[in-house]
Amino acid sequence: MSPQTKFQRQARLRWVPLKDIHVSPVAQRDYRQSRVDALVREFDPEQLGFPTVNYRDEMWMMIDGQHRWRAYIAWLGEGHWEDQMIQCQAYEGLKESEEAEVFLQLNNTLQVTPYDKFMISVTANRERELEIKRIVEANNMRIARTKLRGTEIGTLSAVAALIEVYDRSGSDGLARTLRIVYNAYGQEGLEAQVLKAIGLVVARYSSTLDDVGLSSKLQNKLGLDPLYTSAGEIRDRRGGTWPNCLAAAAVGIHNRKTTRVKEKLGDWWKQQEKEEK
Questions:
Q1: Is residue 90 within 8 Å of residue 54, measured between CB atoms?
Q2: What SS3 state is found at 140?
Q3: How high is the mean pLDDT of the chain?
Q4: Would 245 disulfide with which of 3, 67, 234, 259, CB 3.0-4.6 Å?
Q5: How far apart (Å, rounded) are the C-alpha atoms in residues 274 and 142?
Q6: What global pTM score does this model have?
Q7: Residues 96-110 as b or e (16 or more Cβ within 10 Å = b)
Q8: Looking at the DSSP assignment, which residues form a beta bridge with residue 92?
Q9: Model confidence pLDDT, tens digit, residues 47-97
Q10: What DSSP string describes 181-216?
């Protein structure tokens, strides 16, 4: 039997009136208004793809793409969307259980990892990712997927943490964070939680923070262990995220090793309470 020269899909691309689409209650993820709002803010039909629908019981049932469908409606606005159509991947005659199966198949895809997304963004010349890469390299470090034995000095893969610090404090804040962490802990410190934590410290104390002084006070022959031990005790007492507790621990270590009162940093939790008021 010779192989087919064409692959025949069951679904067909067709135009469907927006007003004729109904959401299947059993073959959809939970609706999130925030997702719709985000799609509307950056509305681009080329990036939205085709919702998947099925014609049964004399109506078009949404299988996958309700947020995109609602984004089209919101973007067009009342009085404008009712007569519009949207191009969909359309099935006909599927049972409700088959709609659910199609949904599972459509969403059984590999997630794009933060690292892959970051590097693809660099290739696409996106300003934020290019700037982060530039800052890392300007500090004699590099971004790589893995820390290979023997070539790991100055290598980091925690791109989500880099983005978080950059978005909070900009180029200068990220550069300072990298230097503080690396000078204090070397390669061992270039992990997500520590980068986020020191990024929080840099953001909060900014102009009053002595970067070199903080690095030297955090240095310990036991590496990160004292920082994590202190943070763990704080987390047991107060709860909270690891980055926040690690930041509080770093400030505590700094202040315990600082003899001059005016050089101490403000108490982490009191500063946080002030910011939250």
A1: yes
A2: coil
A3: 89
A4: 234
A5: 37
A6: 0.68
A7: eeebbebbeeeeeee
A8: 55
A9: 778 999 999 989 999 998 999 999 999 999 998 899 999 999 999 999 888
A10: HHHHHGGGG-SHHHHHHHHHHHHHHGGG--HHHHHH
